[in-house]
Amino acid sequence: MPHLSDEAICVRHWDFSETSQTVSLFCRAGGMLRGLAKGAKRVGGRFSGGIDLLTLGQVVAITKPGRDLATLTDWTLTRTWRSLRSDLAANQAAYYLVDLVQRSLEQADPHPELFDALVEALDRIEAGHAAEATLVFQWRLLDELGYAPRLDPTVGTGTSVHFSADGGGTVAEERPNAWKVRRTTVAFLADVMSSADAAAVALAADRETLTRANRLLAAYVRHVLGTQPTTMRLLFPNL
């Protein structure tokens, strides 16, 4: 029986019994892992009373071919982000990001760069930059999945351009189901996508441009997923 030891973030959990949990972990080297933590909620056990959502730790598990659930044998907590539990805006942003991860990735499909991007995003949310963190992570998720939008702020005329989710980005002329987007929003997103320090570009943006860019990426993510998660509706009402 193969043993796995990896750094992981808990992106979902639910009760299996009075003392046990089933969890979804985003592992740095191994990708998504669904596992059963027997006795996780017992005080003084190997899981310190349970595995909490939005925590970082070192997981040890036993995997078996043909089984969806691994057996978790150990969890060592290494990081928590306090504001994600005490601040509503931080909480909503963080829940949205981990929800995107668990909806977008298949089991055992490694994405170490996206894992690092998620840790960076949670750090930025903790530091009070939820909107900037959300924008950069949405872009990095789309890029990692092969859906990075093509953004050309020079197409068309006037102060607006058209964005086609079906077409994967900006288009030269209006199409059915294309969205009209401010040219400044597209130019800002193009700068974010091309910069070696996307977070710095996001931090330098004015609040209105940042909000519009976040909503555009969220709408595109909704198209890619084929659904609008509750976490998205809470963070972007009336999207």
What does the model show?
- The protein is an alpha+beta fold and 239 residues long.
- The protein has helices spanning 83-86, 88-104, 112-126, 130-144, 183-194, 198-203, 207-225, 230-235; strands at 3-15, 21-27, 31-37, 55-62, 70-80, 160-164, 169-171, 179-182.
- Helix 2 (88-104) packs parallel to helix 4 and helix 3 (112-126) packs antiparallel against helix 4 (130-144).
Short structural summary:
The chain has 239 residues and is α+β, with helices and mostly antiparallel strands.
Question: Could you list some keywords that capture this structure?
Answer:
2 domains; 8 strands; alpha+beta; de novo design (two linked rop proteins); 239 residues; 5-stranded mixed barrel; OB fold (Dihydrolipoamide Acetyltransferase, E2P)
